[in-house]
Amino acid sequence: GAQGNRAAGIGVQFNDQDDTARSKIETYLAGALDSDRPTHTM
Q1: Could you tell me the CA-to-CA distances from 26 to 5, 9, 11, 21, 37 in Å, in that order?
Q2: Per residue in 3-23, pLDDT tens?
Q3: 14 in Cβ contact with 21 (< 8 Å)
Q4: Are 2 and 8 in contact (CB under 8 A)?
């Protein structure tokens, strides 16, 4: 579980050489932007 009564999640950091992977992941996640479910994004 997560600490501080927060939902469990992950953090990802990309360097400049990871543009292809970052772009592909952002494309997959783009559909979540129209979701009615709340998120804990900063």
Answers
A1: 27, 16, 14, 9, 18
A2: 777 777 788 888 888 888 888
A3: yes
A4: yes
Could you tell me if 25 and 19 are in contact, meaning their C-beta atoms sit under 8 angstroms apart? Answer: no
Q: What is the DSSP letter of 41?
A: -
Q: What is the dihedral of CA 27, 31, 37, 38, to 10 degrees?
A: 40
The residue with tokens 């559909």 is: 31
* CA 3/CA 36 separation, integer angstroms: 25
- Does the predicted TM-score (pTM) go above 0.90? no
